[in-house]
Amino acid sequence: MSDYFEIDFFGVETAKSGDAITLRYCVNGQQKIHIVDGGYIDTGAQIQEHLSKYYDSPIFIDNIVLTHPDQDHANGLRFILENYTVGTLWMHRPWLYASQIINRFETYNSVNALVSELKKNYAAVAELERIAEDRGISIREPFQGTTIGAFTVLAPTKSRYLDLLVNSNKTPQAIQENSLDSVMGVFSIALEAARNFFAAMWGEEVFPASGTSNENEMSVVQYAYLNNKHILLTGDAGRDALNEAADYAPYVGWLPPGIDFIQVPHHGGRHNVSTEILDRIIGLRLSESPSNYTCSAVCSSAKADKDHPRKVVKRAFIHRGAHFAETESNTVRFAVGISRSGWSALPQAEYPMEMEEI
Fold first, then answer.
1. Pair 154, 254: CB distance under 8 Å
2. How far apart are CA 121 and CA 215, in angstroms?
3. What distance in Å separates the CA atoms of residue 122 and residue 69, rounded to the nearest whole number?
4. Structural contact between residues 144 and 155, judged by C-beta atoms closer than 8 angstroms
């Protein structure tokens, strides 16, 4: 059997965007199925239907990766864990590190109490743990350098993950101290959605100074080299995670800039990327619209989600020669070495002639 790979991004269609990705690949005659995130509760059944129709009705899933604890990534994986034989579930479980971080919380002196609180605050992850343990599925931690089939984890490191965990809005201390900040954060998002756009010339891009949430920065960033293609899956990773991934990339044989396929982080959120990090990963901006594409970029963005992808993010990827595709209500596929009847190529996304005000 010749080597191949295929990656499917599901059109998780709700009022908000979600992430669900299935992969099938063959290396040296060994075929594996790899699932990254599962969208919302209803997405699990959609994944099963897709696997039955296009992946030859498998009963065994080699690896499942939860990139981070948000419900739009986690909840659909319940169905998969309950209905398939699974080799390994890869995810971070914050409560495993309670004894290592308890001295960083003023209000906690009991490890057991902190474990209980973390399980409550990361309920989606705790439920996946329960199902996996009930079914005898191995659970492992995806930190930098971990190999997951053909993929290697580029981020996060354990030390950065623990720092993010301590400072997360989901940790007990952060919830107690930052309750006002949380309210203001919602208010800021509402204001941001109402901002105006302004016309911009080719190559212009302006990103906010602030980054994304700590939960997004926890995202597992995975890299693989398959069929002579460099593949980067980012989850909802932010700028720090992407820089950490780029720092580690040479150790696994990838020398950025230059990528063949990339997942657009966080549904095209503008707090996740910047001019500098895209220069580092993809390459510098081109002087004009290219006639040939340098890479493929897929954005998991629901059609009903009017805030994603951000115009400046779409512009920035296209500036660097990327073929930009959005899932909306469709499944978007990227493959080499294997064909699929009835599927056709997507046209390049329309280039936005304006972007958001800061």
1. no
2. 12
3. 7
4. yes
Could you tell me whether strands 221-226 and 229-233 are parallel, antiparallel, or unpaired per DSSP bridges? antiparallel
pTM: 0.93
Q: Which two tokens stand for residue 206?
A: 């302006």
For residues 306 and 304, what is the distance between their CA atoms, to the nearest angstrom?
6
Along the chain (358 residues), what's the average pLDDT of each consecutive run of 10 residues? 94 71 97 96 94 98 96 92 98 97 90 95 96 98 98 98 93 50 39 71 97 96 98 98 98 98 96 98 96 94 82 98 90 95 92 94
Contact 47, 80 (CB under 8 A): yes
Q: Which of these, 271, 345, 323, 332, lies nearest to 301 by C-alpha position?
A: 332
For the chain, domains (ranges, CATH) are 4-338 (3.60.15.10)
